[in-house]
Amino acid sequence: MRAGRIIRGLLNFGGNASNSIPFLWQRDVGKLFLDLNRNRDLSDDPRGEFSTRAARPGDSQTFTNVHLVFYFPSGEYPVLADINFWDYGSRPGC
What we know:
Strand order of the largest sheet: 1-2-3-4
Shape: globular
Radius of gyration: 14 Å
Number of helices: 0
Strand content: over 45%
Number of strands: 6
Largest sheet: 4 strands, antiparallel
Low-confidence stretches: none
Distance between the termini: 30 Å
Structural class: mainly beta
Helix content: under 10%
């Protein structure tokens, strides 16, 4: 598998740091890796790898049926999500 362009970041949900999820998006091959256990190690989350359903990966991709768990003082809440990513490139002033 070729590496291609890799975009790393942090998905922030609800302003609670415990609900932030590190990610790696490998756009050229249509893969998204999520750190579902939030330990900053993407290699130990076998359920954290998702593929786009697009016939040909492009600058925008959607990853469907992503199972997430959010933590609140009242308990854990499972969520089923579709996550959209866009790559606008890197231009000065962006």
